[in-house]
TrEMBL record:
<keyword id="KW-0150">Chloroplast</keyword>
<protein>
    <recommendedName>
        <fullName>Delta-aminolevulinic acid dehydratase</fullName>
        <ecNumber>4.2.1.24</ecNumber>
    </recommendedName>
</protein>
<dbReference type="GO" id="GO:0006783">
    <property type="term" value="P:heme biosynthetic process"/>
</dbReference>
<keyword id="KW-0149">Chlorophyll biosynthesis</keyword>
<keyword id="KW-0479">Metal-binding</keyword>
<feature type="active site" description="Schiff-base intermediate with substrate">
    <location>
        <position position="248"/>
    </location>
</feature>
<dbReference type="GO" id="GO:0015995">
    <property type="term" value="P:chlorophyll biosynthetic process"/>
</dbReference>
<keyword id="KW-0021">Allosteric enzyme</keyword>
<keyword id="KW-0934">Plastid</keyword>
<keyword id="KW-0350">Heme biosynthesis</keyword>
<dbReference type="GO" id="GO:0008270">
    <property type="term" value="F:zinc ion binding"/>
</dbReference>
<keyword id="KW-0460">Magnesium</keyword>
<dbReference type="GO" id="GO:0009507">
    <property type="term" value="C:chloroplast"/>
</dbReference>
<feature type="active site" description="Schiff-base intermediate with substrate">
    <location>
        <position position="195"/>
    </location>
</feature>
<feature type="binding site">
    <location>
        <position position="233"/>
    </location>
    <ligand>
        <name>Mg(2+)</name>
    </ligand>
</feature>
<dbReference type="GO" id="GO:0004655">
    <property type="term" value="F:porphobilinogen synthase activity"/>
</dbReference>
<keyword id="KW-0627">Porphyrin biosynthesis</keyword>
Length: 328
């Protein structure tokens, strides 16, 4: 037998030398749930995650993340029902929760990277990512008009990367034009290019109370059965000026991550969503799996598939492992 692949696996030193994929805290973006209150509120469906008080709890979480090398964050607001409207106008209030939070974080940590979510669902009384017509249709162009105002407001506050997660047609080009018109040429766009109508989002929607009040999101989010359709979205987002392409969810869609990696020179992001996180947490709590090992393997798999950055609720915990500090 002349071919023995095991020869290259026979010692830790050889395995390390030939390892094809690496991962570091620099690859992580930590999602942060924020709310208007002062106290942190635990999220039942996401053990270890909280709606953070937008001043004290938020700052403490960012301090801890930076201690283990995580310097990128994405903000998701829990908006009071009283501020929700059919057109989601609170989304572009310059004194709203997200702009205030951006300014606070940039004042305390000027070197961090702040990603923002561009979508109407946290602000909509209907719970959809877009404006709903009387007959229940999600209106595309009217929604994009609102999203442009939202992205400009976030950029004005100091956002580094705006991230349209709405899946409306043409929104990347419209956002780029709106940002450039206001002088925000250096603000990047991370487009949710292949965002699927997935069942893995449940815990997230509990965290933000953003479930649709009727129907589902299948007329704008992608069909989980579709593969080639992701190439259509990729071509459109590239042509419209996206800087980063994102796939969501992550682990169940490794083939889509690889598809985008093989067909685009742009950076690829993957979102390890709330359902993925909660399954690993639940399995670990029940003793069915080793939480830490499965966590690290899942993140490595996302990197191996082609993700340059990973949005993950495990960011601080995984970075602690990589830094030799356990699950700090």
């Amino acid at each position: 037998m002349t071919k023995r692949p095991r020869r290259n696996r026979k010692s830790p030193a050889l395995r390390a030398a030939f390892q094809e994929t690496s991962i570091s805290p620099a690859n992580f973006v930590l999602p942060l749930f924020i709310h208007e209150g002062e106290d942190d509120a635990p999220i039942g469906a996401m053990p270890g995650c909280y709606r953070l008080g937008w001043r004290h709890g938020l700052l403490d979480e960012v301090y801890k993340a930076r201690d283990v090398g995580v310097n990128s964050f994405v903000l998701f607001p829990k908006v009071p029902d009283a501020l929700k409207t059919p057109t989601g106008d609170e989304a572009y209030n310059d004194n709203g929760l997200v702009p205030r939070t951006i300014r606070l974080l940039k004042d305390k940590f000027p070197d961090i990277v702040i990603y923002t979510d561009v979508a109407l669902d946290p602000y909509s009384s209907d719970g959809h990512d877009g404006i709903v017509r009387e007959d229940g249709v999600i209106m595309n162009d009217e929604t994009v008009y609102q999203l442009c105002k939202q992205a400009v407001s976030q950029a004005r506050a100091g956002a580094d990367v705006v991230s349209p997660s709405d899946m409306m047609d043409g929104r990347v080009g419209a956002l780029r034009a709106a940002l450039d018109a206001e002088g925000f040429h250096d603000v990047s766009i991370m487009s949710y290019t292949a965002k699927y109508a997935s069942s893995f989002y449940g815990p997230f929607r509990e965290a933000l109370d953003s479930n649709p009040r009727f129907g589902d999101k299948k007329t704008y989010q992608m069909n989980p059965a579709n593969y080639r359709e992701a190439l259509i979205e990729t071509a459109a987002d590239e042509a419209e000026g996206a800087d980063i392409l994102l796939v969501k969810p992550g682990l169940p869609y490794l083939d889509i991550i690889r598809l985008l990696r093989d067909n685009s020179a742009l950076p690829i992001a993957a979102y390890q969503v709330s359902g993925e996180y909660s399954m690993i947490k639940a399995g670990g709590a029940l003793g069915m799996i080793d939480e830490q090992k499965v966590m690290m393997e899942s993140l490595m798999c996302l990197r191996r598939a082609g993700a340059d950055v990973i949005l993950t609720y495990f960011a601080r915990q995984a970075a602690g492992v990589l830094c030799g500090m356990g699950s700090k």
